[in-house]
Request: fold
Amino acid sequence: MKVKVNRKAHFNAAHRLFNPNWDDAKNQEIFGLCNNPYFHGHNYNLVVSVIGEVDPDTGYVIDMKILKDIIENEVTSKLDHKNLNMEVKEFATQIPTAENIAIVCYNWIREVLPENLELKITLFETERNWVEYPA
Amino acid sequence: MKVKVNRKAHFNAAHRLFNPNWDDAKNQEIFGLCNNPYFHGHNYNLVVSVIGEVDPDTGYVIDMKILKDIIENEVTSKLDHKNLNMEVKEFATQIPTAENIAIVCYNWIREVLPENLELKITLFETERNWVEYPA
Amino acid sequence: MKVKVNRKAHFNAAHRLFNPNWDDAKNQEIFGLCNNPYFHGHNYNLVVSVIGEVDPDTGYVIDMKILKDIIENEVTSKLDHKNLNMEVKEFATQIPTAENIAIVCYNWIREVLPENLELKITLFETERNWVEYPA
Amino acid sequence: MKVKVNRKAHFNAAHRLFNPNWDDAKNQEIFGLCNNPYFHGHNYNLVVSVIGEVDPDTGYVIDMKILKDIIENEVTSKLDHKNLNMEVKEFATQIPTAENIAIVCYNWIREVLPENLELKITLFETERNWVEYPA
Amino acid sequence: MKVKVNRKAHFNAAHRLFNPNWDDAKNQEIFGLCNNPYFHGHNYNLVVSVIGEVDPDTGYVIDMKILKDIIENEVTSKLDHKNLNMEVKEFATQIPTAENIAIVCYNWIREVLPENLELKITLFETERNWVEYPA
Amino acid sequence: MKVKVNRKAHFNAAHRLFNPNWDDAKNQEIFGLCNNPYFHGHNYNLVVSVIGEVDPDTGYVIDMKILKDIIENEVTSKLDHKNLNMEVKEFATQIPTAENIAIVCYNWIREVLPENLELKITLFETERNWVEYPA
Reply:
């Protein structure tokens, strides 16, 4: 049976929820306060989960120092203290909801993670709202 | 791949664990302190999880404001500051254990949630004891 | 300089906020949901803080095992899984608000704690509401 | 002896740390990532603490529902989902560090709180950084 | 549908990550600070999850008092305040990483848990690193 | 009025509670499980609090990046992944209880902190036991 290992990281960012194909009234109706044109922000907590076999030589699925570096290089360095709408090109064409941020983080990490390891992303937007991908 | 979104809520309630088909000795043996006839209580924390496709127009699986309203209407307004045994008809015929409360919350929300969305309930009775339904 | 040591405990209880000198309308106005005559309940978290000199032989202000036993004997055994209004005589004549419960816990522990040690009580009624005595 | 009661609230906001009297190099040296001109943001957690005598009729220092309303009217409604630099006039002339936000919150609440009650503000910018005013 | 019940426990232990088949340089390269020959330690938090049908007579999947006793007998009494490498025979031949500790806890509890109940172990080594078995 | 700023850090270490002036029976009686000669360990959480005036140019009492570096240089680098009894000379002559570790951390940081700033240390040995110095 496989083991899942989990590593928590965090980053702070500003964002705005806004669909450029809609007029102001529709954006306000759907996104409410989150549509503030001056942006608002969050302390995002990110959990990266990796599933695989335990290597009998190390007792590890993946070395946590390696996973920590991957998270830093692939996610934190790109999102921490950033304005997601204006500074992260992935959100030029999709709305930076928690759902979409989680999918972007998944795709970034998936590219550098060895293929034999499964990946799952959990993203906390606040202590009361969070998302998981894949479900 | 689908995304799971999670929303946390809480309510305070009193309850008593007691099977009316058993005598006092049997209830005391099985339920111990939880069988106190004067009731005791908990701060329940509830996590409602919804699984579905991300809508490309909103970036949402479900609007958190809608999910928050569903939780308030279907669960919190019925259970908060209530005596579960004496004031909630679902517990007239079944014991208000964490397991059964979670199933009742699931059934209430399932009725109003669109069919294409999957549902999962996590109910914390204390910081150290919690249940999930379905498993 | 002195050191403060802190020990966390918890108990579950039912209560009702109600002033017998007032009529129903006044109780409802002041206490709202908390006045439910069928009771509601909480998971109380209690922090007992003790201030004193560090004993050079043990490196302790007070042995945590001793403090743990004091909390169990003086507080938890009297309040856990109880109905505060109906089963704890201190609340026959005063309302079991968080403020009054904290003062009662203080008085119980103060009686058995050596005089050279200062005492402070923090009582969490929920994760968002808590009280400290003395302030 | 008096009792301290504490109530937790939260709000999300965007901000930028920047001193208009300094040039870019100096701002970058002092504020680093926090000087991002496109803003970043936080989930702020706020604890409002009120110290006073317990009213023997209610068992309360202050009714938590009243304190909750004060926090909502005086703080949350002004800061939640806002850009602190651009939308809150108090930060037109002072930098929205955690220290200054806490002082602003204190001043807002102090104006409406009865004089016989002492006030203290704790503001969490992240889980690892927080400030208290007065110290 | 089945319900999953979860119970949290904790224990403190010392350990060292070290593969006796490797030389010092290789151990240092792979395990870094965790290879300190004088040991270091953790407060481990353990969540034991049990999946099964709800018994209609008790409303329980498993009585939490029984599960608490199982965890105490099968895990806590063997690991709490111990040096994992030197005092726990399971780690004489495998490295006490979080992955391997979780598998050992699983095997210990699996032996005494009724066959109709599924089992899952979550082990937190720190607040930021944890593992789950089976994945 | 002054502001208090707080910064949280953590380190993992092994220790043993043992008074070399006592015989084995006395050490066992006083320190119990904590006297295990093979050591046990903890994830220590450390909060360093600094009290001072807010600098009007920066809005800071102290720059958190500077405080973070002080904690890393003066505390974490000396204690993380260490055996306190065998590798930290301050504990050659005093017992590494939470009380004494907090005092040692205080003394280390006090030496490098500007004199106009007050200092306070909070050290969590577990989630349920912690100490503060000065009280």
